[in-house]
Description:
Layout: E1 11-12, E2 15-16, H1 17-27, E3 33-37, H2 41-47, E4 54-58, H3 65-70, H4 73-76, E5 81-85, H5 95-108, E6 112-118, E7 126-130, E8 136-140, H6 147-150, E9 154-156, E10 160-164, H7 166-172, H8 188-194, E11 199-203, H9 216-236, E12 240-241, E13 248-249, E14 254-255, E15 260-261, E16 266-267, E17 272-273, E18 278-279, E19 284-285, E20 290-291, E21 296-299, E22 302-304, E23 307-308, E24 313-316, E25 319-321, E26 323-325, E27 330-331, E28 336-338, E29 348-350, E30 355-356, E31 361-363, E32 366-368, E33 373-374, E34 379-380, E35 391-393, E36 398-399
Parallel strand pairs: 3-4, 6-11, 12-15, 13-16, 14-17, 15-18, 16-19, 17-20, 18-21, 19-22, 20-23, 21-24, 22-25, 23-26, 24-27, 26-29, 27-30, 28-31, 29-32, 30-33, 31-34, 33-35
Antiparallel strand pairs: 1-2, 5-10, 6-9, 6-10, 7-8, 7-9, 35-36
Helix pairs in contact: 1-5, 7-8
Amino acid sequence: MKSAKAKVLHEVCGRPMIRYVVDAARGAGARSIVVVVGYDAEGVQSALRGEPDLHFATQTEQLGTGHAVRVCRPLLEGYHGPALVLVGDEPLLRATPLARLLERFSSEHAACLLGSTVLPDPTGFGRILRDAAGRFLRIVEERDCTPEEQALTEVNPSCYVFELPGLWDALDRLETGNAQGEYYLTDAPELLMGMGRKVLALESLAADDVLGVNTRQHLAQAEAIMQARIQDHWMTEGVTIVDPRSTHIDGRAQIGPDTIIRPFSVLAGSVVVGARCVIGPFAHLRDGTVLDDDVQVGAFVEVNRSTLGSGTLARHLAYLGDAEVGKRVNIGATAVTANFDGTKKSKTTIGDGARIGAGAVLIAPVSVGEDAVVGANAVVPRAHDVPAGATVLGAPARPLVKKGDEPTRC
């Protein structure tokens, strides 16, 4: 990856790869998850902080995949039963095929069950070797393959179910006589067979479940597949995505039915969009944004860490950052909540029914009352709140005074 951070922390659709793998294991029924960390251990632990069923084992020396599993033993001492062993750089793994592997493992009473897949281009994967009757023989890592073995297309994507404590017996017998000089976990199934225990390889994983990410090109491929899955999910739930190819939706986003997302729109981070909203074109909803029902966020509008109440319209060329916007508010073109003073970010509050004119600038912290009007190109200074029902104009903004009215201070 040519990166300073751990590979599993690179993001796919806004989430670190490792999070997808953890979710898949949990969704398949894993009750306790051990994550093996080594390089950038603190970064990985930070990304997974707060997960109650997560534990960490540290591999201080990089001695291979078999050694990586072996360092989990102190955390699993005394446990008897099935254990999924997965790799953290396959973010496209899904819970359903893993759950099926666990079910089959239980019915087969095997010592090891490994999920395999057939790929038109098996480059980068270990190959599954079978006998003439189709029975599993062993796994051969690509670097150790003969030319004939390299031609095989059934591969090992490193998705196993082992019976514990039986796995420990096999790991104790691992040797390093291979091209890498490492302890290969892939040798464990053959060792278990040599001990008279049952091992099966099932062609149970789809090709797009097992894309391992080892390069930036792989990362882009994983992003495309995951994005297609995310958009397919939301379209199935009643969301219209006019042009999926030009739209990006974060894996953490939530979207209500009958919402329309127009081309070149981005939903990034933990964004929540209600029902019957219209997003875009060219809209950017950033992390922490919440849109209630019937909100419209149009062309070149950016919303960041803000809440927009039902029926609010921001149809063009606006920036709303750190804002609490009420219901039925109209945000004019090029209006801005100026939330950053160079040191800290502050909040803007806009009441129900307010109208913010084109080109208006609201300098936070500031509030605009219900049904108030901020005129076009007005600049409302910080802490100069606009009262409910008032109209302010100019730079700096001053109340509109009609003949015979007393001026309103703001």
